Amino acid sequence: SMAALMTDAHRRFLQVLMSKGITEASEARKLHHHCCETDKVYYAKDKLDDFISTINRHLQPLFMQIRKGMSEEDGRPYYAVVNLAETEVTKMASDYTETELELFRKTMDLIILSENGFASSTDILNLADKLKTKKMKKKEAEQVLKVFVEDKWLSEKNGEYTLHTRCIIEMEQYILSNYQDVARKCNICHSLAVQSQVCESCGIAMHLPCVRKYFKAQTEPRCPQCNELWSCDIP
Asked: Is 119 within 8 Å of 107 (Cβ atoms)?
């Protein structure tokens, strides 16, 4: 079959997505509509995923892809443009110094090794003066963390840092292969779970939105894996 043609509407859509880095699905749907109208091509309302897979076929030789993921906080779906040729750190390497990258990797270690998917700014800043590449002063490290948040690699709430949705969509494979013993997949949606609840009895993990959805239908919250009572507070 003929591969579907990449129209101006597809190109326009891709450009906007690339400039944003990450886009909420509801925004992407509006953008899909807008691009089709602007370029006077047929707009099929529920066909955003088809529209995107046409773009993805054309992106294949460039080792890029538009991927869908979800916010671990509220379960909302997002789209991000992912570079498949470069794993996380190489992609970031063009934007940050070696020292900044080391701080990012160490922060990522803390987040992924934590119970709940967060690392406190205190713990991160304590790493800053132990970096191998070059010690970083606290003030400087705080500034770098701010930039990681602005660039959507980290997100921050009340002095606690976690991986931004964009970072998770972009680096899921990297994290699963580099943190094999500790990275957890959600028992419900089977994608990487950083911010999660973990069963005290059998150790499975679930995203908070997946926990909410799953237990909504249950009379008493029992682990989907071992059937023990769920030990965490349901969000």
From this structure: yes
Nearest residue to 195 via CA among 82, 44, 38, 70: 70
Location of each CATH 3.30.40.10 domain in the chain:
183-234
| Four-way CATH pick for 183-234: 3.30.40.10, 3.30.2350.10, 3.90.1720.10, 1.10.10.10 | 3.30.40.10
The Cα–Cα gap between 165 and 84 comes to: 17
Supply the angle between the helices 98-113 and 138-150 in degrees, to the nearest 10: 80
Numbered ranges of CATH 1.10.10.10 in the chain:
89-172
Tell the CATH topology of 89-172.
Arc Repressor Mutant, subunit A (1.10.10)
| Per-residue pLDDT of the chain in tens (235 residues, 90 and over written 9) | 446 788 899 999 999 999 998 999 999 999 999 999 998 888 888 899 999 999 999 999 888 999 999 999 999 999 999 888 765 556 677 789 999 999 999 999 999 999 889 999 999 999 998 999 898 999 999 999 999 999 999 999 999 999 999 999 988 988 998 999 899 999 999 999 999 999 999 999 999 999 999 999 888 999 999 999 998 888 8
